[in-house]
Design a protein that fits this description.
- The complex is a heterodimer.
- Chain A is α/β, with parallel strands linked by helices.
- Chain A contains 20 helices and 13 strands.
- The longest helix of chain A has 17 residues.
- By secondary structure, chain B is mainly α.
- Chain B contains twelve helices and two strands.
- In chain B, helix 11 runs antiparallel to helix 12.
- The longest helix of chain B has about 35 residues.
- The two termini of chain B are about 35 Å apart.
- The chains are: A alpha/beta, B mainly alpha.
């Protein structure tokens, strides 16, 4: 009898463990599920969420996924009809999510809100999350690119630090001068995947483009784009570590381990670099060089948006959280905590002052009017189409060949343009 | 007791057996149907479609995914990479494990400690294992190069990267094979060895004439499951190789390619077609192994 009872208990435990616990998720005290992909920002975002709970009594829990698994999770959960409540949107994928009504439409909420006025945010970021005239995300932040350099290496070589007089040619010459292969020291580093933070900037600065303005065709066969890619071909030959080394280790690690003297990196890396002792001691930030011929200094810029699931059972709670993230106070808080620059107009000074270890002014300066004669500053939105990930990954794969043999740069770039046009033509748009 | 014909109504004991039998296999069956069998048919079905965003608006394209696949050099290269991986992983992991299992089956000091050590890689998460190996292999800062003063690009030289990855595979699976072999060895009656000893057979002769034949059913089981497992290799390649790695085209496995298309590119139709190719290859290999076993597997 005892045995039989034990068997029944075990069987029922097995059955129960297979049944998902439902009915408990709709209780108001349950935390909203907030999902992001950048662990550097987790602490700051959680702090803002805690303030939200104090204010409204609605708890919110931040979870971090890696970039790849984030998009898999979001896509799978969107297909299955059970997305997280609140999450980040990125220009690579926003169009697909907006077109398929996966995101909570915010028009009515914004209309009724006295906290959110869409005019207060960077128009470039707002544009990324607008579909058919409707808003689907509250702008969270924006990012720009700057040049990181190793002060110690420049001092040792007796070179002047990079400044706003630098053209791309100056960068090349300094990189070559700083390269000492016997010592294992190199002037510059970039992988084929360093697009937004590195080569896109030069492409646009030299007058080329990645995607046409109607987001329908590739610019990889544009002569100016090829010129920029060949510029990097020269750098790769004369001033970079082996492509194999860079692919194994990553350029930010090469920089923070004192192997390379310069890299270009986005403003989203600050929180991470601040935790690296070597970076704090030896490195600083300069504005990107400009092109001598065009006189244009370009930074690619992108912005994330806070979006909510269209299928959430608690749309009003989700909106309250979006409103909270978008409010002026919390946008300033985000900048103060050093999480990122905020999308709210005129709040970036706060971010620049969040640390005195690095000079963050260059990230902001490039977004404003140029103070240098004959030089124009330009912000270009990160190039995107309906399904950016496909052709961007394919570009990375394709350029691996040119990295191994930089003399093939023009050929690879031209060939890839045809391939990319094909991918864009096949988009589900 | 007299009534033994099958048509008779079940006794209450039989009914009870019937009921409980089903209740006990139900959880497993449900799991299999929901997680394995249904997805198999869904994958076959999907491979005939150009899949829309979020699984909506799929367009039937017939065999077009398969036609594209046949002409796709990347698919065949990946299949070849997978086979090369299996050719290293399976024989080495079986031979080394077999020898180690024989030693670990003898009476000796610290036997359970050794067994635990060899089994440890199985307990560690594969992703963590791959991450650690990735840094061991790193050409710039890796322990391997620094310890021996080498400058080998273990995982970014296309000529050797696939071997480096397979070595991790062998290392991680050894413990599992050893456990299975030890279990098989303990089923071999000791009398055979005693008789051989009396006849003056050496240890090596006993290994080849007693151990190997009597262990062959276990070896066969390990071989079948390891070939299938090796053909499905994914996490090692995914964790060890960065997308910008020049050796990736010569190392990426067929499941890696499937993953790339299905989950990074959102092209589940083509991904499904690729994985159907893998299914076909595994089926064929397994059928041949089953035919081949008659020549070397002894069931007493």
């Amino acid at each position: 009898m005892k045995k039989r009872f034990a068997a029944m208990a075990m069987a029922s435990a097995m059955v129960l463990s297979l049944t998902p616990v439902t009915g408990m998720t709709t209780m108001a005290a349950d935390p909203l599920q907030v999902v992001i992909w950048d662990s550097n920002q987790q602490a700051g975002i959680q702090e803002i969420c805690d303030l939200f709970e104090e204010e409204t009594g609605i708890p919110a829990k931040v979870e971090v996924k890696s970039w790849d698994s984030y998009w898999q999770l979001l896509e799978a959960s969107a297909s299955g009809g059970d997305m997280p409540d609140v999450f980040w949107m990125h220009s690579n994928n926003s169009q697909m999510y907006m077109k398929n009504d996966m995101l909570l439409k915010l028009d009515d909420y914004i209309e009724a809100s006295d906290v959110i006025d869409i005019e207060n945010y960077m128009p470039e970021v707002t544009e990324l999350y607008t579909w058919d005239g409707s808003y689907y995300a509250i702008p969270k932040d924006y990012d720009t690119i700057a040049l990181w350099y190793n002060k110690t290496m420049f001092d040792e070589a007796g070179l002047a630090y990079p400044d706003n007089t630098w053209t791309w040619d100056d960068l090349y010459e300094a990189a070559v001068a700083l390269t000492d292969k016997d010592k294992g020291q190199y002037g510059f580093a970039l992988n084929p995947s360093n697009n937004q933070d590195t080569y896109y900037n030069t492409v646009y600065s030299m007058g080329g483009y990645i995607v046409s303005e109607d987001h329908k065709s590739s610019g990889y066969d544009d002569p100016n784009t090829i010129k920029a890619m060949e510029y990097y071909g020269k750098l790769l030959t004369d001033a970079c570590p082996n492509p194999t080394t860079m692919s194994e280790t990553g350029t930010d690690v090469l920089m923070s381990s004192g192997t390379v003297a310069m890299i270009m990196q986005g403003s989203w890396m600050i929180a991470g670099f601040l935790q690296n002792e070597y970076m704090c001691e030896n490195c600083d930030v300069a504005i990107l060089p400009y092109d001598a011929e065009t006189g244009v200094r370009t930074s690619i810029c992108n912005g994330l948006g806070w979006a909510a699931s269209a299928m959430t059972d608690r749309p009003d709670d989700c909106w309250k959280l979006l409103e909270w993230f978008g409010s002026k106070e919390m946008q300033i808080k985000q900048a103060e905590l050093g999480v990122t620059m905020s999308a709210y107009n005129d709040t970036s000074d706060t971010w620049v002052n969040c640390t005195d270890v690095f000079n963050l002014q260059p990230y902001l300066e490039i977004a404003g009017e140029s103070q240098d004669e004959g030089v124009t500053n330009e912000l270009v939105l990160r190039p995107y189409t309906y399904n950016t990930t496909i052709w961007e990954t394919a570009a990375t794969n394709a350029f691996v060949e040119a990295w191994a043999d930089p003399s093939k740069m023009a050929e690879v770039s031209t060939n890839y343009a045809a391939q990319m046009n094909q991918y864009i033509a096949q988009e589900n748009n | 007791m007299a009534n033994k014909s099958g048509k008779a109504p079940m006794t209450s004991w039989e009914k009870n057996q019937f009921k409980w039998g089903w209740i006990f296999i139900l959880p497993t069956m449900l799991g299999l149907i929901i997680l394995n069998i249904y997805p198999i048919f869904a994958t076959v079905y999907q491979s005939f479609f150009k899949t829309g965003d979020f699984g909506r608006g799929n367009i039937f394209v017939g065999l077009q995914n398969y036609a594209t696949m046949v002409k796709d050099a990347e698919v065949w290269q990946s299949l070849w990479n997978t086979i090369k991986y299996a050719i290293i992983e399976v024989p080495f992991s079986i031979c080394i494990a077999l020898v180690l299992a024989v030693f670990l089956n003898r009476k000796m000091k610290g036997r359970s400690v050794y067994r635990a050590i060899f089994f440890l890689p199985m307990v560690a998460a594969p992703a963590a294992v791959a991450m650690v190996w990735r840094w061991l292999y790193n050409s710039q800062f890796g322990l391997l190069n620094n310890l021996f003063g080498l400058h080998v690009e273990w995982i970014s030289n296309p000529k050797i990267a696939w071997i480096s990855v397979a070595v991790i595979g062998v290392w991680s699976i050894l413990g599992y094979n050893i456990v299975l072999f030890i279990a098989g060895l303990q089923d071999i009656p000791h009398d055979y060895y005693e008789a051989a000893e009396i006849d003056g057979a050496s240890g090596v002769a006993a290994f080849f004439n007693i151990t190997l034949p009597l262990l062959s059913p276990t070896i066969f089981f390990v071989l079948i499951t390891r070939v299938i497992g090796a053909m499905q290799v994914f996490d090692l390649v995914y964790m060890v190789m960065d997308r910008t790695n020049p050796a990736l085209p010569k190392t990426q496995s067929i499941v890696y390619l499937f993953y790339q298309y299905s989950f990074n590119f959102g092209n589940k139709g083509y991904g499904s077609a690729i994985v159907m190719l893998l299914l076909a290859v595994i089926l064929i290999v397994t059928v041949f192994q089953n035919i081949g076993q008659k020549k070397w597997v002894f069931y007493n």
